[in-house]
Amino acid sequence: SYFHNRTDFLFSDYRHTSDLLSQLPNSFIRNFGFINHPNEAIIYGAGYNGVSYFGNSVLLNHRFSNSLDLNYIQNESIDSIEIIPPSRSFLYGTDNNLAAVNFIPRNLIPPAPYTRLKYYEASYEEGFLDFQFNTMFFNKLNLSADILNKKTGNSFKNTESSFWQADIKLTYFISNSANISGGYFHNTSKVGLNGGINVDSLAKRYSSVNSVMYDPITAFVKVTDRYQKNSTNLLTLKGLFLFDEYGITEFNIYFKNVLDEFRQNENYTVSGLDYIKNDEQEKIAGAVLTQKLKLSVFNLDLTGFFEKRDLLIDSDYDITKNLFGFSGNLSLNLINNSIIPSIFTKTVYYDDYVYNGLGGDIKIQFDDNFSVYFGLSRFERFWNYFPTANSKPFVISADGAIDYEFLIFKIRLHLFRREFDKEQTELISGTSSYYVYSPKSDYGAGLSLKSKWKFLETDISFTYFESENSIGLKNSVPGVSGNASIVYSDTHFDSSLTVKTGFSIKFSGERAYSKYEPFRRLISYDVSQNQIESFYTVDFFAAGEIKQSAILYFTFENILDTKYYIVPFYPMPARGIRFGVAWELYN
C-alpha cells in the first residue's frame, strides 16, 4: 500500500478530506466548486461506484449507490491514508471495487488530558471549527471525542451549507494483549444544490458568457430552491486480541442508519420548477471477524463477514438484501522478509448470486531504499450496481510499483491496467439519456517525487490516465494532472518556531464533458459537447508551529485568479484568503 501520513500533510494547504487525496499520485478530484458540496475522488481512474472507503476497519460507502461524499469524513482525526493497490482492492470490505482507500484514525493514549482545537475562516462566511478531547478516565479506560462544525454562506445563490459532526469512542484495555472499543459517529448536514450556472440563460442576455458566469451577483443558477439534508448515525464495537499461539483476532460489529432528504421547490415558490420530495433511508447491520496467523515463514489472514442491507424510499418502497462471504490471503516470507509472494481470494454471496475473486502479488525488498511490487487479479462485480447488466461483470486488474530512495530524493512510480469485459456508461445526447454497456480498458501511471535539501523541500505528484472503449467515448478524467509544491522549511529561536511556507501548483489537462446528478450520485457524459479546457492554479501558503503546540495557517488561494471549472458549470473559487490556527495542549 501507499501511505500518506499525518506528518506529510499537517502543514500543507488543505481544507477538507478530498484535498488530502488530491495531493497523491493516481488521483483526481472532480470538484464541484462550491465549498462543502459533494466532491468525487477519482482513484486509479475509478470514481463513483468504483471506490471502497474505510474508516477504522468499517466500510463507509452508501451501499445501494456504492459511493461516499468525502465531506462526511473528519479529516483532523486522520493519522494516515492508505491507498491499496488496484489488484488487491476487491479483497477488502464486503463489495468488490476497483480501488480502496483506508482512513486510519489517530489512536492516542495521552499521559494527561489532551485537547486540540482547529479553526479557520475564509470568504463568503466560510468557517471551520474542530474540537478534540482525549483522556484516560481510569487506568484502563480511554475516552476520545472529535466534534466538528463547518459552514458556508451564499457565494452564488443557493450554495449555503452547514455540517455538524461528532465522533466519540470509548476503549477498555483488558490487558496488554486485549482491548475492546465502542464508537458512535453522527452527521447532520444541509447543503444547497443549485445545479451550477445556467449558461443558456446567460447567453440570451450577455454576448460573452465567460465574462459573467464567475460573478456571484450577475450569474444565474439553474435551481434557486433545492437542497439535500443528511442524517447519519454509525455505532461500532471493535475487539482486538493477541494470542501467542494463534496471532491476532479482530472483530467488528456495526449498525448504520442514513437518512437523505432531497427537496426541490418545497414551498412552490418558483414557478415552472417541478416539486420534488424524495427521502431515502438506508439501514445497515454487519459483523466482520478477522484472524491473522503467523506460522513459521507463512502469514495467513482469514476474514468472514455478514451484512444486512435495507433501503426505504419515500416510506413505500423497501429493498432488503443479505450479504455474506469470506476472504483469505496467504503470504510467504523468504530471505528475511526481502521476498514476499502472496495469493488471495474472496467469495461473496449477495442477492442470490455468488461473486468470486482471485489474485496474487509479490514484493521484493532489495535493500532499505529499493523495492518493487507486482500484482494481478480477476474479480466479479455486483451486477445490481449496473441497471442494464444481465450478468456479473468481471475485471482483470494488474499493477506494479517501484519505490526508490537515494541521496535527497524519494521516488515512487506506480503503473496499472484494467480490462473490463463490460462497463456501464450513461450518455446524454440532446434531451435524451441512455446506457451503454461495453468492454473497456483503463491504464495509467502515478509518479511521486519528494526531495529535501537543507531548508528546501519539493513535492511533485503526477498522474497519467487513459481509457479505451468500443464506443469511442472520450474520458472525463484528464489524461494528465497533478500538483507540485516548493517549500521553505526550517526551525528558528532554539527550535521554538517551525516554519513551512511556499507555493503549490495544481494542473489538469483536457477532459470530456460530464454532468452530475446530486441525488442519484452519478456522473453522465454529454457526447454533444466539446471537451473541458485544461487549467492550472497557484496558491501561496504559510504555516508556523510555536513550541510544538500551536500552528498558525495562512493561505492565499488562486493567486492568479484563474477562471475555470472542473464540472460544467460549477465555477471554482476565485482568488481569496484563508487563515486559521490549530492548537494542541495537555491540560
Description of the structure:
Helices cover about 5% and strands about 60% of the residues. The protein contains 3 helices and 31 strands.
Task: Name a few traits of the molecule.
single chain; 587 residues; mainly beta; 5-stranded mixed β-sheet; 3 helices
Topology of helices and strands:
Elements: E1 2-5, H1 6-9, H2 17-22, E2 27-30, E3 40-43, E4 51-55, E5 58-59, E6 78-84, E7 99-105, E8 114-122, E9 126-138, E10 141-152, E11 161-175, E12 178-192, H3 199-205, E13 226-243, E14 247-264, E15 276-295, E16 298-313, E17 317-332, E18 339-350, E19 353-367, E20 370-380, E21 394-406, E22 409-429, E23 432-453, E24 456-469, E25 480-492, E26 497-508, E27 514-517, E28 522-526, E29 535-546, E30 550-557, E31 576-586
What is the global morphology?
globular
Distance between the termini: 37 Å
Number of strands: 31
- Which structural class do the helices and strands define? mainly beta
Report strand %.
over 45%
Helix content: under 10%
Provide the residue-averaged pLDDT: 92
Short description:
The protein has 587 residues and is mostly beta strands. The chain has helices at 6-9, 17-22, 199-205, and strands at 2-5, 27-30, 40-43, 51-55, 58-59, 78-84, 99-105, 114-122, 126-138, 141-152, 161-175, 178-192, 226-243, 247-264, 276-295, 298-313, 317-332, 339-350, 353-367, 370-380, 394-406, 409-429, 432-453, 456-469, 480-492, 497-508, 514-517, 522-526, 535-546, 550-557, 576-586. The chain has 3 helices and 31 strands.
